[in-house]
# Entry
Amino acid sequence: MASTSPLISCEHCGTIYRRQELRPGEQASCSRCGSVLWRYSGLHPSGWLALALAALIVFIIANAYPVAIMRVQGMVQAASLPEAVLVTWRQGHEVVAVMTGLAGLVLPLLQLVLLVWVLYPLSTGARPPAFASSTRMLRLLAPWSMVPVFVLGVLVAVVKLAGMASVSPGVGLAGFALLTILLTTLGRLSSQSLWHYAERAGAVDLHIPHTRPGDALAGCHVCGQVQALPRAHPDSPHRCVRCDSPLHLRKPDHLARTWALLIAAAILYIPANVLPVMNIESIFGDSGHTILGGVIELWQTGSWDIALIVFVASVMVPLTKLLALAVLAWKVQRGSATGLRQRTRLYGMVEFIGQWSMLDVFVVILLAALAHFQGLMTISAGAGAGAFGTVVILTMLAAMSFDPRYGWDMAADEADHATPLSPRVAHPAANPPSAMQALGNAIHKQEE
# Structure
């Protein structure tokens, strides 16, 4: 008799587990690759709704007030994030304005609105309208919401301008700091968690997969539903039986897309570091500043801590992402099945640090909005800013295109002498283990 226990798939290695309720403080980790599957949460949909509403209110306040105020010879210039984006646009740097406007304003706002839209019905035990499309959108938006990066950018901008004039933080900065805390907390609420709440409320159905010879189990990245798919062609397109999202056993053409994006990012990385990201026009003359030049300037003025932060975020992080993804793709391409746990951790690190490289781009638009005194000093974005922002986007897309599960498939193939790149057939465990033991052992038995 088939078990009705819900299943969950590890997104990093494809192992299937039974889902069980956790106790406070517990988290379920994959016993194969070590990735965290899910954590205990004491919040119910009503609690998450309160957090989302609070974040939405704070978001409005943070953007209504200036994040910093600059005073020079009796002149005062205040800047909020919307004003910084608008100034950058008016200066003719539309690409930079669009990047920062989307990452700091539009996408976080859309994310919060969608969360409120979904959580309010869930708090009453009902299925939200357009639940599937809303959760698909939430999953897409999550990595592109860069409010924490903007907050750090404000601090760097204040330090950079401190030697030129009197600069003080504004009310908006406090709002963004609080918003960062709220968004970080809400970041633990994944699209799959929302579907799990809907399952518990009886608002959506739970499908129990039944495998046949030649099938394998795969989990939907949006709703978490595990279902049986033919394993003969792992990159063939399918649709989730529950949320109708596109579904593949493995991401199609992942290596080709990853390499293409990495090569494009590597090419743009050169002008991003050679061309000035910021231009300064003042009564003392005009000058252009590159990323590394800005780091050196901060170091020479005594702000070595901020210089180190900028160097790590704007120089080391992009380079690390490029090299790490290149190594991961090369390992899969040559069929290597060694060091899989280390490679999985490396991939997780690349995913985590992805957005922080946008720091310098946010710094530039804030400096442009604050140091905007006609006839005295004007700061504007340089050609390098657009190139650098594009590098950040391309490396993030490359990380999203890469599928680390192929490496684990190769390890399975070496053990079983099966066809390469074909995931093993997975069956629900007859006796699910405890939550303290990562909620189950992987099922690696192949269909006869």
Q: What stands out?
A: The chain has two domains: 44-200, 253-410. The mean pLDDT is 83.
